[in-house]
């Protein structure tokens, strides 16, 4: 994983492990990066400072943990994991403590995206096992109030507008 500073053009290598390091997301305060890595043999979540110091393994479950995203205040991280047999959404504190499960769907919940005010999380869901159609959902940040937001099939990669009144997806 590399970090480039736009105003100086300086690029710094943050990770150098031969395993796959991917899906980097920078914290809202621009001091830390959360990312997915296969350096332990399976995909887990790690955090590193933007200067390349302070590497911390956040998850260690033996499942595939991925798609991590920071809460707007940088205190929590939402992510998807198949630790219970299928992909569901989880949340933890930025230091890896306080793990909580947000969804318990029978098939796929993934690609979490926090609203700008931190009160909601948009995500992609496939609610019928075997059906390959994904839809856009939103829920409260504690996992309650899950609701279908768009009936357009094959939704992915939700992204909130800065004001939090609109959601983009493809």
What report would you give on this structure?
This protein is an all-beta fold and 170 residues long. The chain has no helices and 16 strands. The strands form 5 sheets. It has a 4-stranded antiparallel sheet, with no helix packed on it. A 4-stranded antiparallel sheet has the order 7-8-9-10, with no helix packed on it. The radius of gyration is 16 Å and the shape is globular. The two termini are 25 Å apart. The mean pLDDT is 93.
Please give the alpha-carbon distance between the first and last residues: 25 Å
Strands, total number? 16
The ordered H/E elements are: EEEEEEEEEEEEEEEE
Q: Output the structural class.
A: mainly beta
Approximately how much helix is present in the residues? under 10%
**Overall outline:** globular
> Order of strands side by side in the largest beta sheet?
3-4-5-6
Unreliable runs: none
Mean pLDDT: 93
Global Rg = 16 Å
Strand content: 35-45%
If helices are DSSP runs of H or I spanning 4 or more residues, what is the number of helices? Answer: 0
What is the makeup of the main sheet?
A: 4 strands, antiparallel
């Amino acid at each position: 994983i590399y970090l480039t500073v736009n105003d100086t053009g300086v690029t710094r290598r943050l990770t150098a492990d031969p395993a796959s390091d991917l899906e980097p997301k920078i914290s809202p305060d621009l001091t830390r990066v959360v990312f997915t890595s296969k350096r332990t043999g399976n995909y887990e979540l790690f955090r590193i400072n933007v200067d390349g110091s302070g590497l911390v393994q956040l998850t260690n479950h033996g499942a595939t943990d991925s798609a991590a995203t920071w809460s707007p205040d940088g205190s929590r991280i939402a992510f998807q994991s198949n630790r219970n047999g299928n992909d569901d959404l989880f949340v933890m504190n930025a230091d890896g403590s306080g793990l909580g499960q947000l969804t318990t769907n029978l098939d796929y919940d993934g690609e979490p995206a926090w609203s700008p005010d931190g009160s909601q999380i948009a995500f992609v869901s496939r609610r019928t096992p075997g059906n390959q159609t994904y839809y856009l959902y939103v829920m409260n940040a504690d996992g309650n109030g899950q609701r279908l937001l768009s009936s357009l099939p094959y939704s992915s990669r939700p992204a909130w507008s800065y004001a939090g009144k609109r959601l983009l997806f493809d």
